Amino acid sequence: MIYFDNSATTPVWPEVLATFDQVTKQIWGNPSSLHKLGEPAWNLLEQSRRQIAQLLGVLPSEIIFTSGGSEGDNWVIKGTALAKRQFGKHIITSSVEHAAVRNAMAQLEELGFEVTYLPVDQTGRVKPADVQAALRSDTILVSIMAVNNEIGTIQPIKEIGEILQAYPRVHFMVDAVQALGKGLDDVVFSDRVDFATFSAHKFHALRGTGFVYAKQGRQLAPLINGGGQERGQRSGTENVAGFAAMARAIRLVKEKEAQSVKQEQAVRAAIFKHLQQFDHVHLFSDLTPQFASHVLCFAIEGVRGETVVHAFEDHDIYISTTSACSSKKQAEASTLAAMKVPTRLAESAVRISLGDQNTLADAVAFNQAFDQVYAGFQKIID
Ligand SMILES: Cc1ncc(COP(=O)(O)O)c(C=O)c1O
Questions:
Q1: Could you tell me if residue 260 is inside a domain?
Q2: How far is the CA of 335 from the centre of ligand 1 (A)?
Q3: What residues make up the domain containing 63?
């Protein structure tokens, strides 16, 4: 089997599962309990927070545990809207964000907020000058993703941050769900970023765990009210085992990061160069530093994306249409639509997304399978 759908989710590492298992069995008390079963749970929770903060070069108090990317995105967006609604009701985002951002924005629009959706260029990138032009005296939030989940574009976060230096009251949020472990911490944690959202199942830890980086001094209204856990910012009895496992996964990711980025780049390049030779293959991602190491989006012209996905499945190779969330609904990929790719071509798009477990041998096997898949479609293509 070759698993090339790591942007949808990643396999849990055995060491990470071992941590989850051990903590679930041995440190299962409620961290808020005063008795001696609560204390080790509290200590482990805080140790996990300190470890993650240290690995990412931020403060422990800036890490708030959540259930994953969708929660983090919704919290920062709506939490900003609630906290700052007296100051303004204008939000800026891009037209290529994940549905978790897009649909949170749509809900705020129904409540009377005004959202500016910035266009992108042919590579899916936002122009920093467009952010500058969209800023208003009533802007409260700018939300731009770090790495696009459909085609892998890295957004100019630092440059946008530089523009926002002149607007200190505006919250700057970065959806970094596709960015952890991809050699991009200097982008994600660049000076002016106030909030960044992360999801553990994208880096070999468990579903239903994640965290938000929230810069010291920045305030959000909580969305989940209750017993006041996470310093009142996100209530609910903490998933100590899940967060300890996530901390372990981040440690492992960081140990391997430089090597795994290089390996992903090599695997991606081997496939890219092969696909480039075919007249009817259209490549949406490229090998420049403006694209993350792990995503490659392409189309076989005239063949629908889902047909291509299933053709590779017959070779025990798992890829996806452009994003896992929209793939079952057969929605046209929103990033490609924003890039003004014609609908027919966008409907043919598929995504390969790599993980550190993928090797050059996988690229060779994929390329061989590709030749057969392409030959099988020859009649449709010509
Ligand atoms: C860029 C981006 N943001 C947010 C999410 C949502 O994360 P989760 O699955 O943890 O809710 C995803 C998941 O694919 C993503 O790729």
A1: yes
A2: 15
A3: 14-251
